[in-house]
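Q: Structure tokens for this one, please.
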Amino acid sequence: MRIKQYSIGGVRLRVESEEEISDSGFFPLFRIGDENPVDVTVRVTRSPLPRFGEKELPSDRRRYRITDGGQSYGFVFFADSDHPAFTPYACEVPRGDGIDLYIDYEQPFWDGMIFDALDVGRLFLLRRGAVVHASFITAGNRGILFAGPKQIGKSTQASLWERYRGAEIINGDRAVIRNESGKWLAYGPPFCGSSSICLNEKSHLFAIAFPAKSDYNTVERLSPFDAFKRLIGCFTYPEDDVSVRDTAISFAEEIVSSVPCLLLKCRPDYGAVETLAKELCIEA
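A: Here is the predicted structure, written as tokens:
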């Protein structure tokens, strides 16, 4: 039995497989010793995927979840040009505190593939955490997330803080938010999109800023309702899973009621940094 253990976003995972799992990407930065206690055990098996009689899987999405006989089955589909569009290659089956992961793929296993096959958004929400589309920086001991959709300026604002305020970019594309003992924390995970910026660090979550391109640099505190609408759109989770969707809604409501959330209308310049820093009372 091959075993690898990871600590990601405050959750410790044990991956077991009869086959070797190669290192890839940033995942080796998140490895921990096999002797550590874990929160989730993922049992990986190369196997044909579960079938449900004549029921056809959809052909228009990346992930799809089926409930049959009270058991949940999460399918993930190829997203590359080498395979027919929307052909499933893996299925995760939650069982207690663990997950059985079946993979039907001709290539050797690697850790990036394993975690792609897992529905990590769902996994974290069920354990009091949320994966968020955001550039995550630390300025001093303060964690700040620039959250929002693609091409909105998240990475640009993070880079400006790095340049003008000496901030450290922890992750250029994702963060995991958790509440631990009443404190809101942000973690850098091993997935970072195309940013290639990924550190295994965490910080007190000081504020969440939602950039919006503008001709002027202004900032305003968002009401909990407006902040919720923006934040829930940045969560990664299966929206067709009703129980997880309700958990996501509840968790987002908790965050915006406790963490300052701001709308940063901004240009890509030094003034945007100073405008936000002044609002957050962060001195140069």
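A few notes: The longest helix spans residues 242-258. The longest strand covers residues 202-213.
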